[in-house]
Design brief:
The protein is globular. It is built from four helices and five strands, in the order αβααββαββ. 36% of the residues lie in helices and 24% in strands. α2 runs antiparallel to α3 and α3 packs antiparallel against α4. By secondary structure, it is an alpha+beta fold. A hairpin with a 3-residue loop joins β2 and β3. A five-stranded antiparallel sheet has the order 1-2-3-5-4.
Amino acid sequence: MTDATTATATAERAASAPLLSASAVFDGAADGGAIGSARAFTADFLTAASAVGRPPVPEDRVGLATLVVSELVTNAVRHTSGPCRLLLELRRDAVEISVFDRAAAAPVPHGHDPARVGQHGLEIVVAVCGSVAVEPGPEGKRVRARLPLLAGDPGTG
């Protein structure tokens, strides 16, 4: 490999690495407060952003991130068996929120229906995030949502 190729590969790895990451496991059956705990974990994580030399995350973005976590963890603990894992990855301009669970089936968003009571979680996540993807895994799936940290970025409602 040439020096230029090595430098490019190193820069790409550095650019893709999160500034800060943390994960936690939540079990809805064992802990009725899993959703609230996941929200608090997320707020604490984003508050720590300044510890890695990044400007503080705006309050409205912290609120949206905790909403996204609440919806994704709720789906995992209510509609799958066993615990779920929450992974938060802080990037320069976004936070990536991933929830891993043991169900292979992807969540199905319902069409817009203001008369429907409940089941709007995935619809909300798609509306506020820049991207949402479901990735199959060997023991279930990963639902990954990317929330821009600057108001007005695409996908932030």
